[in-house]
Design a protein that fits this description.
- By secondary structure, the chain is of the alpha/beta class.
- The chain has 17 helices and 13 strands.
- Strands 1-4-5-13 form a four-stranded mixed sheet, sandwiched between helices. A four-stranded antiparallel sheet has the order 6-9-11-7, with helices on both faces.
- Uracil (URA) binds next to helix 9.
């Protein structure tokens, strides 16, 4: 087999066989096939596309390019959850303990944030001493003992995707549906769960800006997951405004704790209920959505979900005191309101701009080696559809560096659009594919 022939075949719009796909993935991972040939192939895929069989073959080849985690030492059905990422998306922090408190085992691999969307690992490091750099043995033992563990992604999980994604990033070939779906799903399949619940975000703060694209991605990933023998479903949820009210690492942890204590924002709790109920059904703990929701509500009301978060933090070396006293989390030196300049209804919040504000305050990573400030960010006081009077707060900015705050403030005002006419908030859940 020659890479040249594979490139030409795809360039001419022909379908690649699983053997050809396996050949280039194995060769590229080993370093036998050079970047320039794989770049040419990615561009051919970008223009000619891949059908369902090719996309599944690509996903499987990338998943098998490194370790396939064997979670069989953990009893029961293991359910994973994955979000395509958004602003204020702290879902795993509340959802994982809620679901684990209902008896579904959570054995999850997570990543760090890059750009305007934060990563679960960064947020969890708001608990002093917490670490996701744990061994596989520790991970499995912990899930068996307390039902929940989150581990940092190891270098050997789908290494072909790691190389290919870096190449696509610099060759303008990221935004192809087959390539995105196979990239995400290869890591999920390698991470070993039996069932996968996907939260595909849509809107101005999401990777996919339109509902049409988000639905297409969701469909493709569900097809891949089920095709690979893992029960997979997707919730397409709104990211046209930040989720909940907090944006920024420790601020989001506090909001997740408040939510586990029954005091969180309504939209965030509803998303946790929607995703959590699918996880309980996929994990065989609930027959239907009503039963699942009742169980999740009980886990929150009884304090079991909050206690599960404390157990989880403690088991990974963190100080659980902040779970019961969030004032112990990292806090910024300054908190200032950002005031509305005019009266009006909030018509639109340009969601990615709010993510950039948090990044400018120091809460995100501009490059993969940037240090992040866990304490900074924004807490929104007004969301789409709310009415404010001039001089009322739109948000509270938490910051340490006044120069950074100035840059973020300018950006913030560009993100909010007010109108005299009432506006409805966008729906939180657009579609569920199961
Ligand atoms: N996230 C991924 O992991 N892969 C992509 O291709 C795009 C987003």
């Amino acid at each position: 087999m020659r890479m040249y022939d594979i490139i030409m075949k795809k360039r001419n719009g022909e379908k690649l066989t699983p053997e050809e796909i396996g050949f280039f993935i194995t060769g590229y991972t080993r370093g036998d096939i050079p970047d320039y040939q794989v770049s040419a192939l990615m561009m051919a895929v970008y223009f000619q596309g891949m059908d369902e069989e090719e996309t599944l073959a690509l996903t499987m080849a990338m998943a098998h390019s490194g370790d396939m985690l064997d979670l069989s030492a953990i009893g029961g059905i293991k359910v994973d959850k994955h979000s395509t990422g958004g602003v204020g998306d702290k879902t795993s922090l509340a959802l994982a303990p809620m679901v684990a408190a209902c008896g579904v085992k959570i054995a999850k691999m997570s990543g760090r944030g890059l750009g305007h969307t934060g990563g679960t690992i960064d947020k969890l490091e708001s608990f002093a001493g917490f670490s996701t750099a744990i061994s596989l043995d520790h991970f499995i033992r912990q899930v068996n003992e307390i039902g929940i563990s989150i581990m940092g992604q190891t270098a050997d999980l789908a290494p072909a995707d790691k190389k290919l994604y870096a190449l696509r990033d610099v060759t303008a070939t990221v935004d192809n549906m087959s390539l995105i779906a196979s990239s995400i799903m290869s890591k999920k399949l390698a991470a070993g769960a039996d069932a996968i619940v996907l939260d595909v975000k849509t809107g101005s703060g999401a990777f996919m800006k339109t509902l049409e694209d988000s639905l297409a991605l969701a469909r493709e990933m569900v097809r891949i997951g089920n095709g690979a023998g893992r029960r997979t479903m997707a919730v397409v949820s709104d990211m046209d405004q930040p989720l909940g009210r907090a944006v920024g690492n420790a601020l989001e942890v506090k909001e997740a704790i408040d939510t586990l204590g029954g005091q969180g924002p309504e939209d965030f709790m509803e998303l946790c209920m929607t995703l959590g109920s699918r996880m309980l059904m996929a994990g065989g703990r609930a027959e239907d959505e009503k039963e699942a929701r009742d169980m999740l509500r009980q886990a929150v009301d009884s304090g079991a979900a909050l206690d599960k978060l404390a157990d989880f933090v403690r088991a990974q070396g963190g100080d659980p005191a902040a779970v019961y006293d969030p004032d112990l989390l990292p806090a910024a030196t300054h908190v200032e309101p950002i005031l509305a300049c005019t009266d009006g209804y909030i018509r639109r919040i340009q969601c990615d701009e709010i993510g950039v504000c948090s990044l400018l305050l120091g809460g995100g990573r501009e490059t993969k080696d940037s240090q992040i400030d866990l304490s900074v960010g924004l807490v929104l006081a007004a969301k789409v559809g709310d009415y404010v009077k001039a001089g009322q707060p739109l948000a509270y900015m938490h910051y340490n560096d006044p120069a950074r705050a100035e840059a973020a403030l300018e950006r913030f005002h560009r993100a909010y659009t007010l109108d005299r006419e009432p506006t409805c908030a966008p729906p939180l859940i657009h579609q569920i594919l199961e």
